[in-house]
Design brief:
This protein is an all-alpha fold. The chain is built from eleven helices and no strands. It folds into two domains: 68 residues, Helicase, Ruva Protein, domain 3 (Orthogonal Bundle), CATH 1.10.8; 91 residues, no CATH class.
Amino acid sequence: MVNRLSKDDFKIVMASLKSAYPNWSIDQHGVNLWYSTLQDIPYPTLNKAALNYVMTHKFAPTIADLRELSYRLSTDAPMLAPAAWNQLIRALRQAYSPDSEMYWEQLPDLTKKIVGGYTTFRQWGNTSLETLESVQRPMFLKRFEEYQRREMMDKITPIGVRPPQTAIPETPQRNLIEERKSEGVEAPEEMLRRLKERLKG
């Protein structure tokens, strides 16, 4: 069970902020609001966030500042989208090896969610790197960052004031390469093949 912030510990944090920002004032209504929206953060985490904040900012924090900093201090740094893509590319090189399922299972859950499934993973493994980089990479990076942004907002927003959950619309498992062909846009390897044929002619 997560230890909630006691009122005494909350007063210690507020006193630290007041000492760091002497001109900062907050009335009783404001104090109640701050406590109600920060009480789900354990004291060690909130105190560390406050101390980190006062060392790097000239002006007093908002509630959102402390919630976001507390979240960042209490979790491992999230993997950046480009790093996740590079990890996926390395796994795709083994998509047709005897251990392909193992490489698939070792990918982060978010990466697997975006790819859509083991079957799609195998299909991507049979696609040229040039096509993956030009067609699939932009979509992957965009959705990876969308999911991470949603997760962070869920974590830093107090439970009592969170809006109803609205899931990010799922992208159907689809082959964007085939879609582009149907729209009359050739994949890079197809364009290269046609160019070679013309040069031979």
